[in-house]
Amino acid sequence: MTIVLVHGAWHSPWYWREVTPHLNTPAVTVDLPSCGPAHGDLHDDARAIKEALDAHTDVTLVAHSYGGMPATEAAAGHPAVRHLVYVAAYNADENETLMTFAAMAGTEPNINPQVDCDFQDGLLVFKPDRAEDVLFHDCPDPREAASHLRPMAPPFAQQSPDSIAWKTIPSTYVICTEDRATAVGVQRTLSTRAAHVHELPSSHSAFLSHPTDLAEIINAAS
Predict the structure, then answer these.
(1) Which helix (H) or strand (E) holds 44?
(2) pLDDT, average across residues 108-128
(3) CB-CB contact of 30 with 53 (8 Å)
């Protein structure tokens, strides 16, 4: 068994560093093209995940936040994937985009994405001070965590997965109850698509604030 870890928007594999030492089986991370110098889109991300899956035969695929969308596309029909774990993630259905879920959040407390990003050279850049408050507020070092965010090209926010893995592959959903980025109400709705649901009293970044607890959930799913 191998655990494949997929980061979210603006993030990188760096963010899994506190989780991997607590996993019971080997783990690999995927570096999504949308967050790198190629500035790819959701479907480029799905192809990168599929390439990682192709190298293994028994996989638990773990995805955080936006990463749930390309992971959902990449895992659909893939013979290696045994279980999906969505961490405050968008296990989207066909024709559902990040904009769909932003509308679902409504006026939920602490959710105000309009002031989170700047445009720089045509890319979306998460404001560091907002990231510390919105993404990392309960993490050991919010400033350090924010410093590792990367810019993204805008198309990912308006794209949806072409194929839907969670309809045929068992899944687990981790609700982060102190999340200020992915609305908790949206997470609870999306969690109904999973066979198993766990809750952590965590910000959006359980991999930094509750790494051992998150690793236990992943180990149990593997």
Answers:
(1) helix 42-54
(2) 77
(3) no
**Each residue of 97-114: pLDDT tens digit?**
988 888 776 666 666 555
Helix axes 42-54, 68-75, angle to 10 degrees: 50
Coil, strand, or helix at residue 200? Answer: strand
Report the DSSP pairing between strands 123-126 and 117-120.
antiparallel
Closest CA to 167 of 81, 48, 46: 81
Overall residue count recorded for the chain in this entry: 222
Q: Which two tokens stand for residue 98?
A: 């990040």
Q: What is residue 204's predicted lDDT score, i.e. its pLDDT? A: 97
Residue linked to tokens 């990463």: 67
**pTM summary value:** 0.95
3-state helix, strand, coil in the chain (%, to 5): 40, 20, 40
Amino acid (1-letter code) at residue 124: L
Amino acid occupying residue 167? K
Burial class for 178, CB neighbours closer than 10 Å (0-12, 13-18, 19+)? middle
Amino acid at 8: G
Name which of 198, 176, 163 is nearest 91 in CA terms: 163
Helix (H) or strand (E) holding 130: helix 128-134
> pLDDT tier at 85 (50, 70, 90 boundaries)?
very high
